[in-house]
Amino acid sequence: MNRALNWTGQALLYGSFALALGVFSRWPVYHPLPDGMAQIKVSFIHHGARLAECRPYTAEEQAKMAPNMRKAMKCERERSPVHIAVDIDGQTVLDRSAPPAGLSRDGASTLYQRFNIAAGEHRIAVRLKDSQSASAQTHQLEQTVNLQPAQVLVIDFNPDKGGIVLQ
Q1: Is 118 exposed, middle or buried (0-12, 13-18, 19+ CB in 10 A)?
Q2: Is residue 1 pLDDT above 80, yes or no?
């Protein structure tokens, strides 16, 4: 009798767990985007230009180094912050600088931002500046895109594909 009660209790416990799992896997309904909306994501990881140009070591500087540590060029590690501006239909929606990562400020700059926008045709202009010494933007892209409802457009930077990429 005791053994049958244990089996029945265990079956009820597992059954209620399975029922709860089934209910919460279908409810509440999740909608990542409202109806008629698309999404634009700005996502990039990019190294800015070095703040100082590489220069050759002088003979005195090389003499102070251990023989196994001598190299021809001295390159400072610190990099420029990367500045990005995004305009959608002539209105600036993003204008931000991403500082370089790392204790020595020598890592990549990263940025991630999302925008929900009505589906349809939009004019997108992206400007990126990855060097403090440059007076103007170093990379630019202006393109008209037709976004479908629930479509996600990613703005990225890929030097192998020519710079700023819309995908």
Answers
A1: exposed
A2: no
